Amino acid sequence: MATIREEDLVASIADALQFISYYHPADYIENLADAWRREESPAARDAMAQILVNSRMAAFGRRPICQDTGTAQVFMKVGLGARIVSNRSLQEIVDEGVRRAWREERNPLRASVVSEPLFGRRNTGDNAPAMLHVEMVAGDAIEVHVAAKGGGSENKAKFAALNPSDSVADWVVRTVETLGAGWCPPGMLGIGVGGSPEKAMTLAKLSLLDPIDLPQIRARGPASKEEELRLEIFERVNALGIGAQGLGGLTTVLDVKLKTFPVHAASLPVGLIPQCAADRHAHFTLDGSGPAVFTPPSLDLWPQDISVATAAGRRVDLDRLTREEVATWRAGETLLLSGRLLTGRDAAHLRLTRMLEAGEDLPVDLRDRAIYYVGPVDAVGDEAVGPAGPTTATRMDKFLEPILSRTGLLVMVGKAERGPAAVETIARHGAAYLIAVGGAAYLVSKAIKSARVLAFADLGMEAIHEFVVEDMPVTVAVDAAGTSVHRDGPARWRRPVREAVPA
C-alpha cells in the first residue's frame, strides 16, 4: 500500500496549475508552428504568429498565456491500494492546491469563479472550487490530469441526443459552423460518444487531455474506424474556412479527439467541447515517493523566424477619436492604438445599462471613447497590468444599443464575431468594432503602459479600468459601414469537401 501525504498532493496540483499557466504543451507548439508555416491567409497567419510569440514570451517570463486563467479541472484515478494521509475530503485537498496556485505571488492567476451561479455571483477570490472527477481503479498510486479551461471555449460546449442512425460527423461539422470564433481557434475538438448525456460530455473533455496525433495518422493512414472518423471531421471542419480567430484560413483545428463508451441501443448521446489556443493541461502520478516534478519544454521549441506583422498598421490617437476618422477605417485593416482606453465586461455593462434605465449619471464619460472587453490579470513587479487579452464580444451584444445610443461610445475592442443585429447596430451608429488576438494576452499587455481603476472596483477584474496604451495592435472586424471580417473572411477561404456517409 502506497502512503501519499496530503501536502504532496496539494503541492503537486498547485505546481501543475502554475506550470500550465505559462507553458504550452510541446505538441501544441510544434503543430501550431507547422500550421503557421502552411497558412496562406495573411490575417490568419499573423494571428497564429501572435499566439506563438505570446507563448514564447509567457514561457520566458513565466506569466499567463491568457488572461482567462480558467477553471481548474482535475481528473483523478485513485488506486484502491493508495492511502492519503489527511483528515480532509479529496475536494478540500484539491481546492487547497487551487488556492495555492492562484495566490502565488510571483505569478498570481486571475480569479474567475463565482460562488453563486444564479443571483449574487460573488467572486470566490481564489478560483476554488475545482471541477473534480474521481475514478477508483486498481493499484496503489494516484494518477492526476490537471487542466485549466477558459470561459470562451467552455461556453461553446454542445450536446445532442442523436438517433443511432444519425451521422456524428455531420452533426459536429454543422455545430462547429455555428460556434463562431469565441472559442479562440486554432485549437482542438473533443468529442465524446455514448454512455449517457453526462458521460458523453465527460468523455469529450477527457479526450482533450490526449496528445496531438492526427498529423501522424494522416501521414500513415487511419488504422481504425475511429481514426477514419476523426480524420473526416478534421478535414471537413478545416474546409469550412473559419481559420485562426475566425478570420478565414486553412487551419481551424489542429486535431480532433474522440472517446466512446457503451450505450443504450436506442441512444446516441454526443458531447462536443472545443479547446482554445491556450491548450493547458498536465499529467502526473503520485506513488508515495514525494510531490510531482514538472520539466519545462526546451525554449528552442518555438520558431526562431516568427514575427508579428504590425509595423505597417495605421496609428490611431484614442484621445482624439472622431466619428469622421472612424468612418475611414476598413474591415480587415490593422490599427495601432495609443492613448487612453477604457475597459468593461459583462458585469460593468450590466451596471451601466441599469444606471441608464434609472436615469442616473454614469461614473465614466464614454462619449467618443473606446472600450476594451477585458478582465486583466493582476500586475507583478514593474508591470502596468498582467496579461490582458480580449474576452468574447458577443456577450456584450445585448448591451450595444443602449450603450451606443445613449453614451456616444465610438469603438469597442474584443475578440470573435458580433451577431448580425449587433453589426447592424454598429453600422447605424457609425461606430466600429476591433479585435485583438485571443491567446496573445501577455503580448497585448506589453502595449499597456499604465492602468488605474475608474469605477466599480468591487467587481474585481471586471471593474472599469483606464489603460494608457502605446501601439496596441488590433484589426478592424466591423467597420462603420457594417462590413464584417468574420463574415467575409471564412467565406473567402471555404472550400468543398466530401459529405459524410451516415453511420
From TrEMBL:
Belongs to the class-I fumarase family. It comes from Methylobacterium terrae. The lineage of its organism: Bacteria, Pseudomonadati, Pseudomonadota, Alphaproteobacteria, Hyphomicrobiales. Transmembrane segments: none annotated. InterPro entries: Fe-S_hydro-lyase_TtdA-typ_cat, Fe-S_hydro-lyase_TtdB-typ_cat, Fe-S_hydroAse_TtdB_cat_sf, Fe_dep_fumarate_hydratase. Its EC number is 4.2.1.2. It catalyses: (S)-malate = fumarate + H2O. Keywords: 4Fe-4S, Iron, Iron-sulfur, Lyase, Metal-binding. Residues 12-284 form the Fe-S hydro-lyase tartrate dehydratase alpha-type catalytic domain. It holds the Pfam family Fumerase_C. GO terms for molecular function: 4 iron, 4 sulfur cluster binding; fumarate hydratase activity; metal ion binding. Catalyzes the reversible hydration of fumarate to (S)-malate. This is Fumarate hydratase class I. Homodimer. Its cofactor is [4Fe-4S] cluster. Gene3D superfamilies: Fe-S hydro-lyase, tartrate dehydratase beta-type, catalytic domain. The keyword Transcription does not apply. Residues 288-488 form the Fe-S hydro-lyase tartrate dehydratase beta-type catalytic domain.
